[in-house]
Amino acid sequence: MKRYLGKIILAILLSLTIIIPNFVFADYESYVAYSLPRLKGDNYTNVHDKQTNDNYIKNQVTALDNTDSADFWVVTQDGTRISDNYNQKVTNYPITINFRPTIHKYKGDQIKMGMQNARLSTGYAFVSGKVDFR
Amino acid sequence: MIKIGCDILRNMILFELKNCINRKEFKVVFMALFLISISAFLMTCYIFYGHPLSFVRSAYESGIIRGNYSSLLLNVEIILLPVFATIIYSDSFYTNARLGTYKNILTRTDKKIYILSQCIVIFLVTFFTFFIPLLINQLLTFIVFPLVGFDNNSALPPFDLGYQKEYLFDFVRIQWPLLYDFIYMALDSLFASLFALFGYSLFFVFNKSRVFVIAGMFIVLQILNFVLSVAGYYEYSIEQYLYSLSKGSYIVLVLWIVLLLSVSLSIIILKGFKYEIDIVK
Lengths: 134, 281
Fold this sequence. Notes:
The complex is a heterodimer.
Chain A: H1 2-24, E1 29-36, E2 43-44, E3 48-49, E4 56-65, E5 70-76, E6 86-88, E7 95-98, E8 110-117, E9 125-132
Antiparallel strand pairs in A: 1-9, 2-8, 3-8, 4-7, 4-9, 5-6, 5-8
Chain B: H1 2-21, H2 24-48, H3 59-62, H4 71-79, H5 81-89, H6 92-99, H7 101-106, H8 111-144, H9 170-175, H10 177-205, H11 210-230, H12 250-272
Helix pairs in contact in B: 1-8, 2-4, 2-5, 2-8, 5-10, 5-11, 8-10, 10-12
């Protein structure tokens, strides 16, 4: 048994190196009933500092009121768009929104997420969910 | 006797079809819808030009029906759908009655056949006026975009199909994406035809002003959509069934179609067939 102890510890440590980062950086921030203004008006989350060098964010929509889907995208602090538009419905798992291929954002860069109703509605709609700016 | 009746009806349909296609209103609406379709295509091309293939979406998801970037144009088309639809040829009876050509036509044919032929022409012409530009947009996207996209509108990984049965025709979307696009093209065109027919029937009831019927129908529909949206019953509005990727009930969809068709036909049969020339002044 002693012979294998070293290997077992090594295996556990290696496993942890794979598992731990997923937990350490899974830093989801909830947003509740963010308004999707009428006539496809835009709304944004607060600006957040990136915690990693990942070129994507993860966003999960948990509830939608008065609409069936909403569009999401990522912008820099000054409002420059750095990702394509993605249409999201309510899901029970997060969706990865990749940045555009020529864009590279690093730890400490400030970004925020934009959102709008997928339809040109005359009434307000609302979205709730959680986002990990990575 | 029946054969003669059929011949008269066929001739009247051809006559009305010719009248409709030569009308300025038809040409303007067709051009407007055509421009919307082409603009939607060009807008999508502009966005994706220069993107690596891994960020390009499939042709099915880049057309005007499901396109993320061109959705504003489709939204405008759907909101103005009742106006566009009724402008095409719905006021034909009203215009003919005002100009007096109605009397000349009735000396050569039966009033019922005349009204029936107009209904058929309005329904068919409106349907294809909406369907053809949407179809052209879809065909253009097939030339430019790949059939299989490495990216998709919902940012889903390739193994995730995003199936949710609450969304209308969602199984069709996964199995036959082109059929799904065609279903929504046909639904939009069908509702345009139904609005046009409904507008045509309204002219037998409100015959004072052309603008009153066209604008009135548009305003009433917008108010109805707004009230349903505010009350939290947006899933019951007509608009809900004109957009792809919408939740809804097949029963409500069929009910709207039956309701619009039956109300229009009832007014046409009860009011239109008994309509007298002298009433229009």
